[in-house]
């Protein structure tokens, strides 16, 4: 550890964050740079960790999935969901002997709710067995040229190296009040970080959600619905007990479905569970002018959570 780096980082966190309209709607939301500038301890072996992976585009992305999972520094259980028996067979054959997978389960589900229903609805009870979970999927966004690299951007932030994943676990271990860790937004996507007319849909999912979001105009959420979390942070959504028919048949919808509404509620769910959320960033994907905070010591990680936490719900968590 270089004391000069720690001192500089400590001073940086003592300064107020300048407002930046380009970071709308939450200009105070600084990102914590990963991997950290020190070597964290490995996650304790008693932690139960799972990957919930909705694999719709299996054939073309099997090799990429394999490579990403190899960056896990520990053995995990993996819950694949997909929509056909053929894809399920491919997943089982390809990953049943994967070196980072302790237990593999593949479930076939109707193509409804995209990645949201399979994880939040179909797999809601499975979450209860785990301390930490990763939500990830085989995203493909062809409707905008600027989103061509979005999946790679998200996967690299969450599974880009063993050091990145170890840094994520370090946050959870050092900061028991942190419940969700998501990538900072791809710069191209920032103008779309709003309710997208889904607030009424979100409120209709449950009275506790309607009450919570009533006064929230500016929303933030894990764009692309990929993130690491404590299972506890997802409980307000898992308890909705959603079923497939709560989602329309897939027709390439760009908004106004329950899947789009729930995507916007992940940070809200985390706060309702009494926990904080934060964002991480890989500097190579972000501008030098972005609000990035490096961490050369566990003290900086803890101080970052204390000084840079953002609340969406009135009154904080």
């Amino acid at each position: 550890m270089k004391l000069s780096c720690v001192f500089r980082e400590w001073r940086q966190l003592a300064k107020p964050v300048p407002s930046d309209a380009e970071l709308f709607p939450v200009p105070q939301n600084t990102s914590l740079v990963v991997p950290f500038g020190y070597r964290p301890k490995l996650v304790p072996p008693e932690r139960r960790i799972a990957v919930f992976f909705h694999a719709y585009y299996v054939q073309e992305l099997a090799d990429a999935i394999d490579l990403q999972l190899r960056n896990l520094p520990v053995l995990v259980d993996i819950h694949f969901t997909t929509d056909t028996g053929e894809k399920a067979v491919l997943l089982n054959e390809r990953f049943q002997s994967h070196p980072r997978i302790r237990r593999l389960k593949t479930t076939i589900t109707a193509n409804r709710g995209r990645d949201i229903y399979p994880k939040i609805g179909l797999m809601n009870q499975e979450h209860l067995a785990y301390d930490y979970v990763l939500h990830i999927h085989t995203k493909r966004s062809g409707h905008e040229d600027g989103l061509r690299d979005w999946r790679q951007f998200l996967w690299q932030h969450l599974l880009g190296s063993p050091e990145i994943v170890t840094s994520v676990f370090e946050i959870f271990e050092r900061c028991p009040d942190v419940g969700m860790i998501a990538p900072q937004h791809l710069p191209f996507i920032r103008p779309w970080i709003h309710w997208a007319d889904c607030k009424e849909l979100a409120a209709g999912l449950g009275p506790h959600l309607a009450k919570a979001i009533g006064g929230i105009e500016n929303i933030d959420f894990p764009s692309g619905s990929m993130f690491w979390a404590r299972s506890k942070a997802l409980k307000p959504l898992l308890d909705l007990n959603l079923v497939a028919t709560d989602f329309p048949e897939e027709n390439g919808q760009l908004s106004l479905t329950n899947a789009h509404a729930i995507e916007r509620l992940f940070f809200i769910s985390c706060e309702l569970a009494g926990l904080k959320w934060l964002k991480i960033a890989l500097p190579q994907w972000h501008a030098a002018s972005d609000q990035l905070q490096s961490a050369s010591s566990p003290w900086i990680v803890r101080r970052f959570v204390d000084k840079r936490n953002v609340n969406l719900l009135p009154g904080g968590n």
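Strands lie at 31-33, 49-54, 76-82, 101-108, 132-137, 178-183, 227-230, 276-281, 292-293. Residues 162-174 form the longest helix (13 residues).
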